[in-house]
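Figure S7 source data.
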Amino acid sequence: MHPSSTTHFKPCFNFTLYLNIVQASFMATKQEEKSTKRVQYPLDPSSYKILDEIGAGVSAIVYKAICVPMNSLVAIKSIDLDRSRPDFDDVRREAKTLSLLSHHNILNAHCCFTVDQRLWVVMPFMAGGSLQSIISHSFPDGLTEPCIAVVLKETLNALSYLHGQGHLHRDIKAGNILVDTNGTVKLADFGVSASIYEYPNSSSSSTSASTSAPCLSSSSSIRLTDVAGTPYWMAPEVIHSHIGYSFKADIWSFGITALELAHGRPPLSHLPPSKSMILKITKRFRFSDLDKYRKGHGGKNKFSKAFKDMVASCLDQDPSKRPTAEKLLKHPFFKNCKGSDCLVKNVLQGLPSVEKRYKESKIMHETTPSDDDDHEGDMVKQENVKQRRISGWNFNEDGLELEPVFPPTPSDHHQTKEDDAIVKVVRFESEMVHDESQEHDVASLGAISKLNTSAINVNVNNENVAEHLMMSCIVDRSSRVEKIGGVQVGGVLNNKETMLTTLNVLKGSLEQELGQVKLIMNMIQGEEIHQVVDDRQEHMDQEISRLRTELENERKKSLQLELQLQNFRLN
Ligand SMILES: Nc1ncnc2c1ncn2[C@@H]1O[C@H](COP(=O)(O)OP(=O)(O)OP(=O)(O)O)[C@@H](O)[C@H]1O
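Tokens for the predicted adenosine-5'-triphosphate complex:
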């Protein structure tokens, strides 16, 4: 799985049931088209002539094609139903959502139908392709601010409409923002979008993260609890999905997308997309503390204050403090926003076609290490990160990047026992990420989403560690026992001394492992305490700020009273 690929974790699906659902969604789409008098695109594959491959997702290939009877260019997303079995719900949802939405900045599908084991979604062809493909090909260091403003404003229009209709997109990123030759920007890919109307209102207070059903928060706003989206763009509350999330999760991803457009890639994308790593990051770094990190940075700022303020407001850890899409549209950053011709002149002009870019990127992939290898490369580059404990994160304002902070160590070669343990933990995380099958990671994430616990982030790390430890114990021990077994089978059992020596070695290693287990247990307890302390600190900070406001109000009131009293005396 590509790190920037969409992730959606949910229970397995019944294939026959799924085909029925797609059929039903499909019929609903057709009926909708009839009632809104939309042009009906042909529903048979022979009406389309595939011209080129223009992109690929996790289980889909996107083609540029021509609809022969209409003589118009289209994009066909061909989804492998066999490969995307766990995503059936997404596909159905995408078809249904798209059939109900109509907005200038939202990419609607013309139609969809099944071709053998594939679902074809026929869409308007957006000649510029996705912003991600544009950036990665021609703007690796990001776009200029005026161009970013145009893209973001158009995306916000779509988001504001979408939220107004009760939908969350849940996968906002440059890869899902498409642009046409005339600079029109459209939001696409509703595979993991969710509608609050799909779920009956429930007063359930369940915080189970295993279901995709939403629950109501104390503020009575709808809250979803399933883990959906793409890791680097995911809001903290989506990662900590047991607490529930709502429209503001899209605003976080929008903020990350702004940084992606500005910087060429999302923050932290140089780190492996291990969920536990992201949990650590979002826990430790408060984007709302941006100002703290600004102090002392005297370098030349590439981006305006308005841009940074806008991004910082989207990246507030507290979803309730993030602005709505509608409010964001009124942010000063968008005040003097240019028109789409700005994109035509500065981004699209001279840009190779989407198919050419895709071909080039494929060749690049073949000749250079794969994404996974890239991450391996990243991991090698970050050998120091693995070797040393990260104590926090600094925000590099100029680079709009998070940088790890390491506690000073006397020498890298003289690590303490505790550091050793942490190195193992971090290494294990990296191993998980590099597991080719990805099943381990996905399975862990699935397990995480099933956890009904308030200390989910602590459990994630430690479950992985414990699981790893247990597995290595089992493997090691079974091979050792096998060896002893081999000795037995070999008839050397009469050599008591050899047997005793072997057993002593085994005992020693078991004691060593027991020590490791104890160490891990201490770490888990330590993390829990750390979490409690963090929560208390946060609570105290909030209380102090509330008291300060109250004090300020009282001071103003008494000032007013004093003024009134003076006036009274003068009169
Ligand atoms: N309607 C379209 N017109 C032109 N190009 C398109 C269109 N739809 C998709 N593409 C191109 O195909 C690429 C892949 O799109 P797709 O939606 O399958 O994958 P993704 O969003 O990158 O991945 P995933 O959805 O798996 O996270 C896009 O990045 C874009 O360049």
